[in-house]
């Protein structure tokens, strides 16, 4: 699923997918705190690393 934001196509990543990618928001994947909250490293099903 893709949504457009200011003319840019962005993939929609659901909370369930984020939970799986971050191993249920594991402390081992915690990177730090950003201006909008906690930041975690995750690996999507296609192997893409995200934060």
Automatic annotation (TrEMBL):
Name of the featured protein: Protein kinase domain-containing protein
Organism encoding this protein: Nymphaea colorata (pocket water lily)
């Amino acid at each position: 699923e893709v949504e457009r934001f200011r003319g840019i196509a962005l993939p929609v990543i659901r909370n369930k997918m984020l939970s799986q990618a971050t191993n249920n928001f594991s402390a081992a994947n915690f990177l730090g705190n950003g201006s909008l909250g906690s930041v975690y490293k995750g690996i999507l099903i296609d192997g893409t690393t995200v934060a």
